[in-house]
Amino acid sequence: MTAGRREAEGCSRTGLPIGDPTDQYPTRLDHAIEPIPRHEPAVWGGAAEGPLSQLHLDGFAEYGYLVAPETVSDDWLPLLRHEMDRIAADLDSDDSRVIREPGGAIRSIFEPHLLSDLVAQLVRLDTVLPVARQLLGGDVYIHQARINLMPGFTGTGFYWHSDFETWHAEDGMPAIRAVSCSIALTDNYPYNGSLMVIPGSHQTFYPCVGATPADNHDTSLVAQNVGVPDQTTLTKVVDQHDIHQFTGPPGTALWFDANLLHGSGSNITPLPRSNVFLVFNSVHNALTDPFAADRPRPEYLAARRVHAVT
After folding, report:
1. How far apart (Å, rounded) are the C-alpha atoms in residues 238 and 299?
2. DSSP string, 67-98
3. TM segments (predicted)?
4. Which of 68, 146, 195, 223 is the most exposed place for a label (fewest CB within 10 A)?
């Protein structure tokens, strides 16, 4: 949201327009408010519109995620691992798309689909793009893509959060009509920092307290402290829904709703964990001004140019 719009409309301390009717999911507030039931369906397409059966669609609608084995075949995996190493070696050390752990190891690389023809092909696989289109009910584009690396011994985790909370507050994503696909490039064990999800939490939006700092992405991509539910809220949500953990061999994909609460612990084992992470957004859910930040995040974190993937 621009400064002019804030001044013209009158704003709260968080930068949100007072009584803004376009914001169905207020967050980054100066006081706690009640959780908000989601307004949109979790599944927009039917069984006839893609590869997922009605059973899979019903499971995704109920739990907010599904596991898809063999999304990427074995012959792809060595190529993707090699491409991951190539991208990391080719990028300048000060490239803003490279996020590093406090100790210097690479944590994430953004926009791999624009840096690699192979990753661009991965987006369009018959086991990937049609699933995204089916879940979101039509044409989609890449809102964000990255390679996540969690090296052995030193890889740090991601605290509990809803991606949509950040994409809404800092990117201006208006509605919950986006889905993430995390494709494992290495084995995901229960003990090497694999992703944990709170099934069913996607049906409720949990507003967070605390204004968005300027250039919050400079630190939040390493350690997220703003836009996360408080411990009391998390305890209640887990008591209600439990915790599931994603495990599986390389090539397995975890699809999950943009509003699903998830996180991961640190990796203190010698076994690295890496994945390609693709975020699909509906072309009918294009970004607007941020709802709780002074300015949009960079394009490599949140694409504002909507080009349907074909």
Report:
1. 34
2. EETTSS-TTTHHHHHHHHHHHHHHS-TT-TTE
3. none
4. 223
For residue range 74-129, list pLDDT tens digits in order. 999 999 999 999 999 998 878 999 998 888 888 999 999 999 999 999 999 999 99
SS3 228: coil
Per-residue pLDDT, averaged over 135-160, amounts to 94
Q: What is the CATH number of the domain that holds 53?
A: 2.60.120.620
* pLDDT at 17 (0 to 100): 42
User: Sorting pLDDT into bands at 50, 70 and 90, what band is 20?
Assistant: low
pLDDT, position 5:
33
In a domain, 237, yes or no: yes
C-beta of residue 107 within 8 angstroms of C-beta of residue 100 = yes
35 belongs to a structural domain: no
Whether 165 maps to a domain, the answer reads yes
Strand 178-184 and strand 196-197: the pairing is unpaired
The beta-carbon contacts of 238-244 under 8 Å, at least 24 apart in sequence, are 238/198, 240/200, 241/198, 241/199, 241/200, 241/201, 242/198, 242/199, 243/196, 243/197, 243/198, 244/63, 244/65, 244/196, 244/197, 244/198, 244/199
pLDDT band at 250 (very low <50, low <70, confident <90, very high): very high
Tell me, yes or no, whether 221 lies in a domain: yes
Determine what percent of the chain is predicted with pLDDT higher than 70. Answer: 93
Distance between CA atoms of 74 and 84, rounded to whole angstroms? 16
CA distances in angstroms from 159 to 224, 227, 253, 269, 304, listed in the order given: 7, 10, 21, 19, 26
- Which backbone phi and psi does 110 adopt, to 5 degrees? -95, 155
Closest by Cα among 6, 5, 16 to 292: 16
